[in-house]
Each structure stands twice: as structure tokens, then as C-alpha cells.
Specification:
binds zinc ion; disordered N terminus; alpha/beta; 5-stranded mixed beta sheet
Length: 560
């Protein structure tokens, strides 16, 4: 007789508990309904609606599933069947330079030396006396005819303005005569290790300085004021929001940049999540504090180090096993951090021993190979661990090194936009065989190498849509390869989105926090004007961002 009573009691108890749960289940702060959601979550790839509570996703499913989270105060956005993706995570940016570039002289699309000079001249007229004219992102390969600029071009229009305008790849800058004078650079100045002072036939500097030689002038340019820096960061954040970038991984920031992020974090004004990787030359600072990789909170993390193995292909400073086809006496240069190589090895060993993550810029095949040598020495010395070594750019692979990427579980942190940009001229510089292993995204994926996508902003545009377009089409910017430059290396749209979300999240140890639209993860999402999964590939570059949501807050687009 006792049993039925017990069951009845149990039923009453369970019912009461369920009722309590129903009563206490909070309602969502935000629901996006009637969307086409591509979640990048393999257990639940597509959905119609998502609910957000605080800064986290709490439900993903059909409109009716998610509607159970609706309460009187829930903001509901009707997505009108548009595509909703996880927010883009740019794995490689120079955030403050990007913010500064938005306000600097624009030289990148100048199509001739005359236009380059004209724009510098106009900017110099508006530059207060004594202030430096910097930035620019010039690209002489877009000029007709293409030729490396020299100071004589710009001296007549900048007699009183020191000029140090950078090439878009960041590996070469052009100084005018006043800037060289202020920096004390003369015919007698020797090339520093890891750098080149470009000289004329008589041995005099032309004003073009490559890699480490740029320090000669950079060190005499007054540092940014705190106010200038804050403004640059705010400009960069606004730009990121407008193009759907919800996380950035900031390579070689100044410490003052991190201080600016930290100040904005405290004020609640960070609208993108930042993982900052200062230069490995400062490894001692982070090891002294004792922090490890990905240390910090959802909006700001440190614990990684950026190192440089070599330069760039465009500046002919990427380090190759064999000489350049168009410059047979040159096979690139190692960065100053690699002089000697044991210095780099010691710093990396130290960083790894203390749990810091290594993100190493390596572009030429030999530069990449030498870094893989060091990574494998580290693994042998310190044993297996989840360390997520990264090679930034990984542009020109030696055939033998794909296997080592896999064995050492190195993340290829790559920037597809560079492929459609460099693809215009790269084959002339390195020949067909090496070009066939250039930006080899498909080979990486097929071998099982993890990809993280980014832009290297302000080397390339921050807008992820251009990067998706580049990875999917490989159609070079000059229109000469409409079916793709080395088309066998194209990726599909879903692969591209995954590399830009989960791939980048993995590269910063955050794959359980972001990278997909999954209950429990941070509510970082982007709503697009068109469905990039189904439109023609060549139309992708015209797609716009309608809304950007970071931690459940709308940081771009109409609030509805
Ligand atoms: Zn970079």
C-alpha cells in the first residue's frame, strides 16, 4: 500500500519542481528569429533562431523552439531570412596601425608615381609644420610603369615636412631627404642586420628602407600621444564593428596599445575582443609576471608572443632556399631577431617553458623551415603539450614541410586576400613551381593542418567579405585570373567561414568560448545582406554587413 502513495508523491514532487523551473527560467534579452543561421557547429549546422541571455547564447533552434525564451522585455529581431553567422575572428591584425591608417594619407590605390606624389603633396600642405607624414600603404606594383619610389620624387613637395611613408606590406618605407637627415642616415650608414638601405649607383640612400633598416627612421619619429592612440583604437573598433569583425588577434602591439585597450575595457567601450601578442624581444616581461597563453577575460587576453623570421615577398626580403627568379643574386633576408638563430631559439625555448604561445611571422620557404626546426626542438626538449604553435602567413611552403606542420600541430595563420593581391606578380618573382605551393590553403586542409584566417590589416582590408571572396575565388585583383590563380587551392564557402570563426578561435585557445553559434558560447554574431553560401562566388565581394553583435549587444547596424 505504501508504494502507490510514494509514486503519487514522487509525481507531485517532480511536477512541482518542473513548475518551479518553468517559473524561474529567465527570459532572453535578445532573440533573433526568422534567420538562416549557419552555426559552424557540426552537431547542429543550421537553425532559424537564436536566444541570448546576458552575453551568452542560450538557445539555438527553430523559431518556435527559441520563442519559449521570449519574455516581456526580450528584444526580438526579425532577420527576414538573412544569413546569420558567428562573428568573424581576424587572427592577424595590426589594430592601432589600422586605426591610424583610416585617417592617414591614402597611397595604396595610386596608379602612378605622379598620383603618389600628388597625394603626398596635398597631405603635406595640411600637415602642421614639424609633424611627420607617415602611413600610406603605397604599392608601386599598381603604378604604370612600376618602379620603386625614391626620395627625389617627393622632396620638392615636402621641403619642411619629414616623410616616412610605408609600403602596404609593412616591410619597406620611403623617407624624404629631411627624414633621412633627422635620422642621420647617410651614404656611410651600414645596412643593419636584417635590414637594407636601398642605394643608388653612387651608394647614396634612395630613401627606401627595408625591414630592420626602417628602425633607423622610426626611432626618431615622436611616439603617439595617449590621446592619439585612444582615438586610433576607437576608430579601429568602429571599423571592425562595421565589417562584422567581433574578435581580433593583435600582432606586435606596443604595450601602450594594450594599456589603451585596458582603459576602454574598463569603460565598457571595447566592442571587439582582443588577443594581444607583443614582440618576442620582450619575452622576459610576460615570463616575469608568470602569465600563460590566453590569460585574461573575454574581451582582452595576452600570453602570446609575435616573432619575425623574415620579411615579405613584395619587398624581396622573404627568406627562400633558392634565389628570386627576377633578382638572382638575392634569396631574401632573415629578420634581426634571427641574428643569430640561437637568439631566436633561446627566446622561444624560454617562452614555451613558461606556457606562452608562439606566433611567428615566416613567409619564405626557408624562413618557415627554420622556424619549424625550432618548434620541433622545443617539442623534443619540453615534451608534448597543447601549445598551438602558429606560423603567421606561411606563404611559400617547401614541399617537405607540410608533413612537419601536421606532426608539430602548427596552426597556419593565413591571409587569403594577399593571394589575390600578390598573385598579380608572385610567379615572376618565384617561378611556377614555388608559386604552386604559395597560399596553399587546400593542401593545408587536406593534410589536416588547422587554418586560422585573418587579414594582416592594415596590410590588407579588414573587411572579412573580401577575404572570403579571395579564398573562394582566388581571382587576382588585376582580373587576369577569373577562374582562380592556382585554382586547385580554392576553398569552399563553408570551409572559409570555419577557418575565420572556429579556426581563429582555436588559434587563440578560445574554441570553447566562441567560433560557433552554440548554446553556452559568447553571443558574437553577424547578419549579412546576402547568403554567401548560395550566391555566385564573384558576387560575394559586394555583400554587406547588416548587423554586428558582440556579447549580445548590437555594435553595428539598425537596432530595430
Ligand atoms: Zn602582420
Amino acid at each position: 500500500m505504501r508504494t502507490p502513495i510514494c509514486i503519487a508523491g514522487l509525481i507531485m514532487f517532480v511536477a512541482g519542481t518542473l513548475q518551479t523551473i518553468a517559473q524561474t527560467k529567465p527570459s532572453a534579452d535578445l532573440i533573433i528569429t526568422n534567420a538562416k543561421i549557419w552555426t559552424v557547429d557540426k552537431s547542429n549546422p543550421t537553425a532559424q533562431a537564436v536566444a541570448v541571455l546576458g552575453d551568452r547564447i542560450v538557445a539555438v533552434g527553430s523559431n518556435s523552439d527559441v520563442d519559449t525564451w521570449r519574455g516581456p522585455k526580450t528584444r526580438v529581431i526579425d532577420a527576414e531570412a538573412k544569413l546569420l553567422l558567428p562573428g568573424f575572428n581576424d587572427a592577424h591584425v595590426h589594430f592601432v596601425s589600422g586605426g591610424l591608417a583610416l585617417d592617414a594619407v591614402q597611397l595604396n590605390d595610386a596608379s602612378s608615381a605622379e598620383e603618389f606624389v600628388h597625394r603626398i603633396s596635398e597631405r603635406a600642405k595640411r600637415t602642421p609644420k614639424g609633424e611627420w607624414l607617415v602611413g600610406g600603404d603605397w604599392d608601386e606594383t599598381k603604378w604604370t610603369p612600376a618602379r620603386l619610389p625614391a626620395k627625389e620624387l617627393i622632396d620638392p613637395v615636402t621641403p619642411e615636412t619629414p616623410v616616412f611613408v610605408s609600403r602596404y606590406d609593412g616591410h619597406m618605407s620611403l623617407a624624404n631627404s629631411l627624414a633621412l637627415r633627422l635620422a642621420g642616415v647617410t651614404a656611410k650608414t651600414p645596412d643593419p642586420p636584417g635590414g637594407v638601405i636601398v642605394r643608388d649607383a653612387g651608394g647614396k640612400p634612395t630613401g627606401a628602407l627595408k625591414d630592420a633598416a626602417m628602425h633607423l627612421v622610426n626611432k626618431v619619429i615622436p611616439p603617439l600621444s595617449h590621446d592619439q592612440r585612444l582615438k586610433a583604437v576607437k576608430r579601429a573598433l568602429a571599423h571592425a564593428a562595421s565589417v562584422g569583425v567581433t574578435s581580433v588577434q593583435n600582432m606586435n602591439p606596443d604595450y601602450e596599445d594594450i594599456a589603451a585597450y585596458s582603459e576602454l575595457l574598463e569603460k565598457g567601450e571595447l566592442t571587439a575582443r582582443i588577443y594581444a601578442a607583443p614582440l618576442i624581444t620582450q619575452v622576459d616581461d610576460q615570463t616575469k609576471i608568470g602569465i600563460r597563453h590566453a590569460f585574461g577575460g573575454p574581451f582582452l587576453r595576452i600570453g602570446a608572443l609575435k616573432a619575425f623570421a623574415d620579411g615579405s615577398l613584395g619587398s624581396a626580403t622573404a627568406y627562400f632556399f633558392q634565389p628570386f627568379d627576377d633578382l638572382p643574386s638575392n634569396h631574401g633576408i632573415l629578420s634581426d631577431e634571427m641574428h643569430p638563430v640561437s637568439l631566436m631559439r633561446d627566446r622561444m625555448m624560454k617562452a614555451d617553458a613558461d606556457g606562452l604561445q608562439l606566433c611567428t611571422h615566416a613567409i619564405g620557404d626557408q624562413g618557415i623551415s627554420m622556424i619549424l626546426d625550432i618548434y620541433s626542438e622545443i617539442t623534443r626538449a619540453h615534451g608534448e603539450a597543447d601549445r598551438r604553435f602558429r606560423i603567421e602567413h606561411a606563404q611559400h611552403m617547401a614541399a617537405k614541410d607540410f608533413d612537419r606542420f601536421v606532426q608539430l600541430q602548427v596552426v597556419a595563420s593565413v591571409q587569403p586576400y594577399h593571394a589575390i593581391d600578390d598573385g598579380r606578380w608572385a610567379e615572376k618573382r618565384i617561378g611556377h613551381d614555388r608559386a604552386s605551393r604559395t597560399y596553399p590553403f587546400r593542401t593545408f586542409l587536406n593534410r589536416g593542418v588547422r587554418l586560422a584566417f585573418g587579414t594582416d590589416w592594415d596590410v590588407a582590408p579588414l573587411n572579412p567579405i573580401f577575404t572570403v571572396y579571395a579564398a573562394v575565388t582566388r581571382a587576382t585583383l588585376d582580373g587576369k585570373n577569373p577562374n582562380g590563380w592556382f585554382p586547385e587551392q580554392k576553398l569552399t564557402v563553408p570551409e572559409t567561414i570555419e577557418a575565420y570563426t572556429m579556426g581563429s578561435a582555436y588559434a587563440e585557445f578560445q574554441e570553447s568560448e566562441k567560433g560557433s553559434i552554440t548554446p553556452g558560447k559568447l553571443a558574437d554574431m553577424v547578419l549579412l545582406s546576402d547568403d554567401i553560401l548560395s550566391i555566385a562566388a564573384e558576387k560575394i565581394r559586394d555583400v554587406k554587413v547588416l548587423k554586428t553583435i558582440v556579447g549580445g549587444k548590437i555594435v553595428w547596424g539598425a537596432r530595430q
